[in-house]
Amino acid sequence: MRIGVSRQWATWLGAIGLALWMSLATAQPGDAGAFGTTLQQMLADGSHPYVRAPDLRSERTPLQQLYERRGWQPLWSEDQTPTRSALATLSLMRGAENYGLHGSDYEANQILYHLVDLVTTPGTHPDQWAHFDLALSAAVLRFATHVHYGRIDPKQAGFDIPVAADRIDRLSILEEAATATDPAAVFARIEPPYEHYQLLKAALPKFRLLALERGLTDLPAYSGRSVKPGETYAGAPALRHLLVAIGDLPADSAAPESDLTLDPALVAALKQFQALHGLAPDGALGRETFRHLTTPLLQRVEQIELTLERWRWLPKLETPPLFVNIPQYQLFAFGTTQDREADMLKLDVIVGKAFPNTRTPVFSEEMRYLVFRPYWDVPYSIATRELLPEIRKNPGYMDKQNLELVRGPGDDAKPVPPTQENLAALVAGTLRLRQRPGDDNALGLVKFMLPNEYNVYLHSTPAKGLFSEARRAFSHGCIRVSDPVALAEHVLKGTPGDWTREKIEAAMNGTETFRVPLSSPIPVYIVYGTAIASEAGQVFFFDDVYGHDARLAVLLGE
Questions:
Q1: Which phi and psi angles does 449 have, rounded to 5°?
Q2: Measuring CA to CA, which residue among 457, 442, 469, 446 is closest to residue 516?
Q3: Nearest-10 Cα torsion for 177, 179, 182, 187
Q4: Dihedrals phi, psi of 324, to nearest 5 degrees
Q5: How many of the other CB atoms lie within 10 Å of CB of 428?
Q6: CA-CA distances (angstroms) from residue 58 to 132, 187, 304?
């Protein structure tokens, strides 16, 4: 991870500026033939004096097309002088950290070093100007790809998210940047079209600066006992300094340096901090709160960078979607294709446990129908590993749990008795175990179906007490919804049948199991972001509950 900006940058730009002024007065017409010959040779060989060969070879075809179309003329210089657009674009990529990217991925410093040498050395150097032109063009193509699509394919990170269908013309972007007075505006048009992407991107510089402050998250070691509001804490001054720096404690409400108590202002700031980090906001300094307070701010920078990468994997929205953010344990149902908080229905959810075989997968699919008073078809692994031993041990277990054995697909399958022969057929996979509809059904009284290979869907639940937990990874992979009636109201808008809240509740509490197709499919994105910025200017950080951040960081070389 890189967080700093080189202190030599201003010096280099100054040197280039001076050289530009001198070269404008003494410039000689360049040798376009030698320039073009050098370009053609580099592209034919797939080699460059200071661009990594794999990077150049991967862009060889579009670059060949570009320069052929231009008659092998320079794109980034005139009369052996870099254009202002070239300098502005190079500066933009040198500051790629502002996008959550890394300038070294575009060899911005390397290009700059050679440019400084080139403009400060008298004489004509058509081959070296060709080196500069091709290096900058290749870097811009790579930068445009990363800004729009991200640095890696989401499938490499185990995410089943289709690559965005809205393809961009990278060569047009490149040529536009080469003539733009403000290249940043060119690249802004191909960034993810989401308000919350921009909010998170805007928060990144603040956390980079905070990460540079030595000792900011250094607090006295946790004693093993929670410090309650009003109690004495030796690290109170350091805690106040941290909370003021990150914005959870107003500077004018901080107590004197000598105050070692968790006073009301400090408790309120702790509650704010806890709410922003997925913790129960009790205002006490417990083990988990201490862990989050002492998490290095470099790690928060990385969380933002990784979440920005995942934003780039999402397509442009054509219809209002539904998002579930796994580490946040929250669902967002959009009222429009714009991600404005005022237009969203927000619901708490329960997701899969952190074990490899129970994690909720990251994927996208379309919600197509609802089932009121559903049967629960018990997954084979749960039926054979968890429930079958109980059934064999206790003959009355199936009746008590409202379970039955059935043969064949569909809700109209007929039950068969739980004989030893039929239990063996369950193990063999020729019979299945299901739970009858009712208040104790594991799916609750309604399920929201988005057919997918993972057999994961959204549903209500009889275990409502679990929603009071701050961390809600309790399921076998499916997503339990805190207010299924509100979600049903949202997704059934426009569906024939006048689905009012009262009618939905009546269907959930009736006696019939039935399906309601949605008038139009709703895109559902099960996503994974451990850093989220709000429109109120707050940044939320969540635990890497499934380890996806750690895996993505390795893939990106963080």
A1: -100, 125
A2: 446
A3: -20
A4: -125, 120
A5: 8
A6: 18, 21, 28
CA distance 218 to 216: 6
**Rounded-to-integer distance, Cα 551 and Cα 4, Å:** 24
Tell me if 93 sits within 8 A of 108, measured CB to CB: yes
Tell me the domains of the chain and their CATH numbers.
9-191 (no CATH), 218-294 (1.10.101.10), 318-556 (2.40.440.10)
pTM (two decimals) = 0.91
Helix %, strand %, coil % of the chain (to 5) = 45, 15, 40
> pLDDT band at 189, cuts 50/70/90?
very high
Q: Where are the alpha helices (DSSP H) in 408-558?
A: 420-428, 484-491, 501-508, 548-556
Rounded Cα gap, residues 344 and 339, in angstroms: 8
CB-side exposure of 101: number of CA atoms within 13 Å?
27
Strands, DSSP E only, in 79-229?
Answer: none
3-class secondary-structure state, position 212: helix
Q: In this predicted model, what pLDDT tens digit does every residue of 137-162 receive, in sequence order?
A: 999 999 999 999 999 999 999 899 88
Contact call for residues 12 and 112 (beta carbons, < 8 A) = yes
- Angle, CA of 113, 117 and 120, to the nearest 5°: 135
- Whole-angstrom Cα distance, residue 325 to residue 533? 13
Between the CA atoms of 292, 294, 296 and 300, what dihedral angle is there, to the nearest 10 degrees? 20
Q: Which residues contact 355 (CB under 8 A, 6 or more apart)?
A: none
Contact 144, 138 (CB under 8 A): no
pLDDT band at 32 (very low <50, low <70, confident <90, very high): low
Helical H runs in 294-419? 297-311, 380-382, 388-393, 397-400
Classified as helix, coil or strand, 174 is helix
Q: Which of these, 153, 173, 137, lies nearest to 60 by C-alpha position?
A: 137
